[in-house]
């Protein structure tokens, strides 16, 4: 069974190992979400929150599991996290995968793509 879930801080070592094996940057202070099939991690995302603004550090899905909606699921987990924690804006550095984020409603602002969390729901960019 496939699950998408937030990783508690005390279980971050498993995420760190996955990131190291797949050459994905890992930030110990970030909030991690994973796609899990039984005990196998298929994908990971990391989100860092500072001064009320969230920054997406990474969204990664193993090659053989891409184009199955897992990246979208991880992004929606991050957006939901922000919504539940009253974080108004999410940003991501340009160049991570701009078209992926633009499809979700992110817009360019300087070196970043930015999304208003409330606008995401108001524009129905996600299905509840």
User: How much helix, percentage-wise, in residues?
Assistant: 25-40%
**In terms of quaternary structure, what is this?**
single chain
The coarse silhouette is globular
- Number of beta strands: 7
Task: Average the pLDDT over all residues and give the rounded result.
Answer: 92
Strand content: 35-45%
Helical run tally = 4
Radius of gyration: 14 Å
Unreliable residue stretches: none
Largest sheet: 7 strands, mixed
Physical arrangement of strands within the biggest beta sheet: 1-2-3-4-5-7-6
Based on secondary structure, the structural category is alpha+beta
Order of helices and strands: EHEEEHEHEEH
Distance between the termini: 21 Å
Could you name the key traits of this structure?
128 residues, alpha+beta, 4 helices, 7 strands, globular
Concise overview:
By secondary structure, the protein is of the alpha+beta class.
């Amino acid at each position: 069974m496939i699950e998408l879930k937030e990783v508690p801080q005390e279980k971050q070592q498993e995420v760190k190992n996955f990131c190291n094996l797949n050459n994905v940057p890992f930030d110990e202070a970030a909030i991690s979400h994973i796609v899990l099939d039984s005990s196998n991690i298929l994908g990971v995302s990391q989100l860092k929150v500072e001064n009320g603004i969230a920054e997406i550090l990474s969204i990664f899905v193993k090659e053989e599991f891409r184009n199955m909606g897992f990246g979208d699921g991880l992004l929606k987990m991050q957006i939901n996290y922000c919504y539940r924690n009253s974080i108004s804006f999410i940003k991501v550095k340009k160049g991570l995968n701009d078209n992926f984020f633009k499809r979700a409603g992110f817009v360019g602002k300087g070196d970043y793509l930015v999304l208003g969390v409330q606008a995401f729901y108001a524009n129905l960019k996600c299905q509840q």
